[in-house]
Queue: 2 jobs
Job 1
Amino acid sequence: MASATSADTFPNMSSLGEAHVDNERRLPAKPVNPVMETRDLNVFYGDFHAVHDVNLSYGRHEITAMIGPSGCGKSTVLRCLNRMNDLVPGARVDGEVLYHGQDIYEKRVDPIAVRTQIGMVFQKPNPFPKSIYDNIAYGPRVTGMKVDNMDDLVEEALNGAALWDEVKDKLKQSAYGLSGGQQQRLCIARTIATKPDVILMDEPCSALDPIATARVEDLMLTLRNEYTIIVVTHNMQQAARVSDRTAFFTARPDETTGNRTGLLVEYDLTSTIFSAPGDKRTEDYISGRFG
Amino acid sequence: MSIAATTARQVTLATGKSKDKTPVSLAFLIALWFSMFFGVLVLLALIVNTAIDGSTRFDSELLTNYASIVRPESSGFRAGILGSLWLMVFTALLAVPLGISAALYLEEFADPTTRWNRFVEVNLQNLAAVPAIVYGLLAVAIMALLGFQNAGIVLGGALALALLILPVIIITTREAVRAVPREIRQGSLALGATVWQTTWRQTLPSAIPGIATGTILGLSRAIGEAAPLVVVGLAGSVLFDPEGVMSRITALPMQIYSLTSNSREELQQAASAAIIVLLVMVLGLNALAIFIRNKFQRSW
């Protein structure tokens, strides 16, 4: 694996074309030994066919971005990866979601165990109505993780999310006193405190201002060294700035019902997707002609 | 076109009497004011009238003495006040755990699409509309099943009142639980917490101010009820303090009820004074509920 140091610098926010940080990572065309894979993934909400036949693989210590217009099923796919879709009444998943080769939808797999390995950061910062310290300590406490010193773990997690210096003097204060960007980094810190393998991010910056966004993107590039990150984003520039690989989804209306079913159009290295996409729909979307 | 439109436009704003102040709209406004005053006036008249009637009896004996027909001028409501307080405590002990558990099940665990749960849902709404006296009958029946000859004891009264306020507690608790944002639950579950842990450590603590408010409002309704207690067979007067759940008691509304049917002047005055005491207790509980709501209310 190529060194990631050059990518750890402040991400270029100015334009799409110059931001191919992953060019220097020299990744193989296809992920080798992927951490996660979806095989013929189909998702239904009741009778509604939300996602059709998605085949994707997510590489270790890579950032994979899933982009596409609204309703293309990218968030649905993301929520399948740690079984958060189980919580939606009427949701049904067909096909396989492999984590280190094991299907997480197999009957004997406990969704709770899946979620301790595959953490998730949500669109809107959602800190708990507790102190900053308790927000971080919550995950390790509920999962019964063996912790020698909780104070050290909290510091480590906050450091990992580049938040420690800002909050070290007010750990006992409510997390609601933090700014939106700090709250989102707290949520990332909360997720890494349980030491997951994969971190899913569902449009993590869509509620943040550009400066807070830049800090979270910066953080994602740092976290890549230790975690595998899968991010859904509306923001193509963000995908271009931070991701190693990009999957482009689109929605196809059903001929009879008119319901829009999401499907995967193209999946490749981000540099390829943004410079030489293989599908016309991808090119149209990226160049802003549609979506 | 736009330039021509902006330069050519000549506007004179109408002056003089506002169209909001025509005789018709003023008459309508007066009608609205009258309606509002009617509601307030009824309450004021009630309180003032009762307070004047009972004003001769605002003394400490009112609170410390037992009821007496022999010396009506110093008759007191010690037994009723203590009885009502005991009823409050045991009503809360019975209704709060049951109500919160039922509400949590319905909100966090039940699948709302099944026919059984929809049936429960509809019946809960109906339960809240059942007349209070019916709960008294139900409490008598339950006490008989439990083998009690006499239902006019703390347990019987508390049972009737608990049944009465159970729907109120369930409904307000459900609203409080529903007000906790879904994102909080999802955040907890995404960290690997179970639904149980999420309910206990996130949802319930966040909902407690709302639950407390609803519970207190339910209790303040229960404290003023006489009908179910009459059916249960609570005494109109007792001459001793309650000593346990098996103790025969009376309650403040029961004492008021039995005194107002007596024609002696002094007892009428005592009843009026007791009504003021009861109103103070109810308004105090409502004030506490409002205080809790304002103090701990969270905006998400």
Job 2
Amino acid sequence: MLSQKMVFASGNEAAVHAARQIDYHVMGYYPITPSTQVAEGLDLLKSKGDVSTVMIAAEGEHSAAGICYGSALTGARVLNATSANGLLYALEQLPVQSGTRVPMVMNVACRTVSAPLCIKGDHSDIMYTLNCGWLIFFAKDNQEVYDFNIIGLKVAEKIKLPVIIAYDGFFTSHQKKKMQIFENDSDVREYLGEYKADFTCIDCEAPITIGSYMNEPDIINNKYQLNIAMEEAKGVIACEFDRYNELTDRNYNIIHKYMTDDAEVIFIVLGSAFDTSKDAVDKMREKGYKVGVLTLQLLRPFFARELSGACRNAKVVVIGERQDSYGSNGGNLSKEIKSAFYDHDVRAKVITRVFGLGGKEFYKEDAENMLWLGIESLEFKDIYKFDYYGAYRGEAYENKKYFEPVTEKNSTLGYETEEIKNDNGDTDHIAVKNINIKKATEMPKRLVAGHSACSGCGIPVNVNLLLKGIEGNVVLIFNTGCGMVVTTGYPSTSFRVNYIHNLFQNTAATLSGVVEGYKERQRRGEIPRGKITFIMVCGDGGMDIGLGSALGTAARNHNMIIFEYDNGGYMNTGYQYSYTTPMGARSATSHVGKAESGKPFIHKDTPMLFKAAGIPYIATVAENQPMDFIKKAKKAQYYADNHGLAYIKALSACPLNWNDPPRHERAVIAKAVECCYHPLYEIENGKTRITYMPKEKTGVLDFLGAMGRTKHLVKEEYKHIADAIQTEVDRRWESLLRENEK
Amino acid sequence: MYLKKDMYEIRLESIGGFGANLTGKLLGEIGACYMEVEAQSFASYGSEKRGSPVKAYVRYSNRDIRLNEPVRKPDLLAIFVMNLAGKENLMAGVDENTDVVVNSHESHDNVRDRLKMHKGRLWVVDALDIALECQSRLNMVMLGACVRASGFIPLEFAEEVIKDVLGSKYPEKTTANIMALKMGYTRVECKEYNDDKYPYQKYEEPRRVKGWKTGEIGGINPEFGNSVTNSLEGCREGYVPHFIREKCIDCGLCDSTCPDMVFQFEKGVNKGMDKYHCKGCMRCVEICPTNALVEAEEGKYDDNIGCIDLINKHFLFTDIGENSWIDSESTNNQEV
């Protein structure tokens, strides 16, 4: 046995320990709860110089999976980590990776797939990957996360298939427990050996074509190869478990059994619930009941024979599932187990209970109840074979009305707009009149009090300033981010108007669908004539992952407003850097240390991307100039009503992660404006107009030094970063000045 | 052997920003790495978002820890902020065998009454005061108080964990942190309650009124604006703005900077504040051009006029729940 040492670590940290020892070439990822800590932890190690892994934060999971695939094609060892909707967004890449036989490791901290959006743990995401041709290990605790990350890579490289290491989101990913790791990193590397890919895309002496265009008669052979590989994997995995046992004294079996040998009732459950169930088994055994519990270490390949062997003597098998394959009376695990039993003549009665969805706790008593179900069904025949466990009927409830809705009636304040034509008779610009801050206090709040944003948060401030300028009916759409989670935590909602939440990647497209559906239903006379202003609200995260869709929507020029509150980071998931985070800023994925100096590249200039799309109105706003803000909102409404798409961007404060006092946020925003890091301008029908000209343009450090996350940039050692930001800010400002003069 | 029973369970109750999660991690670390028992530490996954309730759990055992559930019947319960008094499940599982550690400057009897504590040993420490005195943080003081109340966790292990775990990250704070730890340990005072003044509170799994039969399909929510029934007073940290009508010129700037829709304007006139929803960020105090808004101690003025837009005022405010959405385990930007 090779020497081991104890660490106190969570499941995500366990994956980081393994990744550190493996020293992957590349990690391509996109932050998503609850898997993000894997990238965060590895980045922290990188900043200290403990690993040399290239960390690439993609602008979405689809790209992250692409980065991983590309890197793996060079013969590099590659890591990814994701969850839930991120996994589904990346799903398309998965069969490509396995179909072209390129190994890599992906950790999946399992979480509920939305909608309704839920960030907590269940197994609804991982089951989508069953048909993707990846090996899938399922770890029940932190120790297994670590061990499977190592064994999984070994098997993957032998079999030439990518591997997923799945574990329970939060229950396992965030729970710290004692565990053992190899004391010497070299032992891990020695066990794995050097990786030599069978083929790469960079050996120019031996050119190959990767990803052939392949129809019948060939594709069936490619898939048959995959099938053979999975069959081979069974033997390889068993071998590697044995080998690993010799090295570590940690004994893994394909099927992890507890008191099942003589059990009449066996409970089968995946993940962290297995350990809880062991306690329940002990208790029931004390009472004389012959019960046991087992879990599977692998979902792919599926060890049907071994599982059936373990259940051969049972009379009843109860399967607990943290997901459902709706309409089929069982989750995917039940389907697989039943099919295994059929093939191997296991006669046990099978009962399925869907439990613990969305992170619902699984108490010891719940495990006992599952076993009781089995005991009861030994005697009584009329027990439902399939049901949900833990859903409740609820009590009768009459929805209450707290406010009048905000409609045209109470939100028309008499703001005036006038279209000013140029010499050619085209719209030059819109003049807004009869609008001021005091008058705007009369605008009823469409976003009401009681939301749970952090104290001093800029999001509600900015959303309200925007809506102060918008008269009449409004429909809002948000994509995922702090703005939606703090306002719509069920059964609570802070919206007094219609509100939709949809995915990161396609919210702009979704709203364009709403706009056109509304117009067409009006045209057909199905709904009365009327006017609604359609507004998308998103953070800078939404403008990273959803940028393609937003630009596509802009190119189509639908009648709508896109409002971006840019706080420069993925704050909702614990502050990982976004593409608008200031260069050099400290974040959970861009640490500042001897080998890393914060966010690696310059902040994205999103308004200019919209300028290129040619939409009629673009504006930047800042809360320290509320009057300008409200006026621009009104103009945007005019353009959305009459000309097409309007895009507005606000710099939005995040006291928690900017790491500055909530009370000073408006002053900090003002500094960003004064130094032209966030210049105020509008682009109307292609014509740029600077709306605020600082009397004396300050240096960017004036702004960056006011935030905890960037205050280190003031130091001499980071001068090159501050200079790079200054140069870029100056370049953008001068470009605006040139355009302004035209 | 440190543990006198099979399993020792700790629950920490706080709101985000006070570092309870870290205290939990350190207690876990003490168990695993110093006392060398089996240990487990996790949080209510709500994390460190400023202002939202956080629960952290620690278990020690001499054998494998198999449970993953929240601590329902704590041996040690620590309450970091008294604002939490009355919250769901706060005092759940507390009985004559429980040590309850509370950060408060009030007397034992007052604290007990506010918490409606059933029985057990109540340990009170003015952790905020000590933290300020030592220029450390409240969670270090609470760690010291918890160590003392446990009766078996050696203080020197807590010292070592601070040096080993935090010292590498924040070496300049180590002395202050250890001073805070020790003062928490020595200054915390105990009083035992054994009468039946307040009943035992059982842990209840949170449930909603609406279920699969009575809730709308698709998870839609037709009760627009109902978040107004959430009280956010618990998010405040002892201070709240006070509005002086005589000085106000109704400019509307406060309404433009308030994230919580606190200012109640009617036809352009500022009628006052809805303090149920004020989180005490003081943005308005900073911006008010006439000093009509000033920072004041919590409870000093009775000037809450509520939300005047409401057409239905017949409801009870509910505390914003432990609806934990955010995964900011990262202590990257948080000073310890």
